[in-house]
Amino acid sequence: MDGVPCLRVSQCYAQQFRKFLQSQGMLDLSLCLLKVSDGTVLLPISPSCVSKLDLQCLRATYSPCEIVWSQAPQQKKKEKRRTSSDKLVKILQEVLESHGERWTEELRGDIPSSYQRHGDLLLLGANCFSLPIWKKIDNQLWSTVAKALGAKRLAKMSRISRDGFRSPVVTMLLGDHSWVRHVDNGIRYEFDVTKCMFSAGNITEKLRVSAFDCRDETVVDLYAGIGYFTLPYLVHAGARHVHACEWNPDAVEALQKNLEANRVSNRCTIHQGDNRQLQLCDLADRVNLGLIPSSEDGWHVACRLLKRTIGGILHIHQNVSSPFSDTADTPAIKDAAQRAPGKKADREVWQAWADDTASSIASLLKDITGTPWKTNIQHIEHVKSYAPHVHHVVLDLECRPLSAEQMNTRVDTT
């Protein structure tokens, strides 16, 4: 059959399907997905994997889907990036030359090679358009860039502020407002790019949270932000109620909008301010500690929140550094067989951190409640890597108070 084999899915569930196909080695990574005007997305499939797709199972697990053979040209990813960049270079070169300026390779190096797309707004990185010559065409520069890259609004990131809220320092270059919208896994997120951050790299963890069964559970999200994890707990995991803690007032404003937009505001209570001052205790079945590089400042609060009689689960985020964190001292390893031990070493360090954390949490729980607790490492999830051997991981830690019978058993065995 002619064309490219694709799985047609609803745009709301495209991330879930893409993650599944990629995990099974079925997604054709050389081709771009294709958005269709009817609200569906075509995910390119490797031709040899078409017969292996269990559509009935996928429909039952996610949502309606079908295999189609796309006749529309689907650009290769590298070609698409190169085409956009080349188009921008060509247009800017013409504009500069029309102002009597000569094009140089230095100017080419000052043009963005990547950017974040938020709907019709493009967020440029700090290291572009920094040369003084661009000011000579300032009146038409940004409208030219936006048109060439298919955007209506432009903004530029400079750095993350040190205001305690990790607020981005972003300047709007083109456009009348800075609010944007994202749809991840059927959940709508809205926020102001000049005041809040959005971490697309956490999508795998958001999908994992969405798959939890939290019916009849009370969840506390200690670092809620704009609702990165609060919303998956409510929309997909089915939590009975979520207490969302956030101290950045701009993030709280976005969180309120997002709860209403996703129609779950009636099952969420927002606690604005420092979560260490939170007055709640003894109510949580599950606590999410989604702060990196470390959420350790919130461990005591999380332990106080767990139900005293039955305990619960802590999801503890952490950036863990493995051996060879100094890349200057890391030997170049080209052979796959030699790289494998390095991955094993990473996992061993994650396990050691998890063991230490489990022990610390057990001690905290005993100090808070006055009785012994047992902690059990359920899972260690790797979210993403920031640099060689610096990894964002999540520890799922089950915490249960020991019954009188269990305590007597421990005494007898010792």
What's the arrangement of secondary structure elements?
Blueprint (H helix, E strand, L loop, with lengths): L3 E7 L3 H10 L10 E2 L4 E5 L10 H7 L3 E6 L6 H22 L6 H4 L6 E4 L2 E4 L13 H11 L4 E8 L7 E7 L4 E6 L2 E6 L10 H8 L7 E4 L8 H6 L5 E6 L2 H13 L6 E5 L13 E4 L9 H7 L6 E10 L14 H34 L3 E15 L2 E12 L2 H10 L1
Parallel strand pairs: 6-7, 11-12, 11-14, 12-13, 14-15
Antiparallel strand pairs: 1-3, 1-4, 2-3, 5-6, 7-8, 9-10, 15-17, 16-17
What's a quick, concise take on this entry?
With 414 residues, the protein is an alpha/beta fold. 32% of the residues lie in helices and 27% in strands. The strands form 4 sheets. A 7-stranded mixed sheet has the order 13-12-11-14-15-17-16, with helices on both faces. The chain has a 4-stranded antiparallel sheet with strand order 2-3-1-4.
Descriptive report:
The chain has 414 residues and is α/β, with parallel strands linked by helices. Helices cover 32% and strands 27% of the residues. It contains eleven helices and 17 strands. It has helices at residues 14-23, 55-61, 77-98, 105-108, 138-148, 203-210, 230-235, 249-261, 299-305, 336-369, 404-413, and strands at residues 4-10, 34-35, 40-44, 65-70, 115-118, 121-124, 153-160, 168-174, 179-184, 187-192, 218-221, 241-246, 268-272, 286-289, 312-321, 373-387, 390-401. The strands form four sheets. It has a seven-stranded mixed beta sheet, with helices on both faces. A four-stranded antiparallel beta sheet has the order 2-3-1-4. Helix 9 (299-305) links the parallel strand 14 and strand 15. The longest helix has 34 residues, at 336-369.
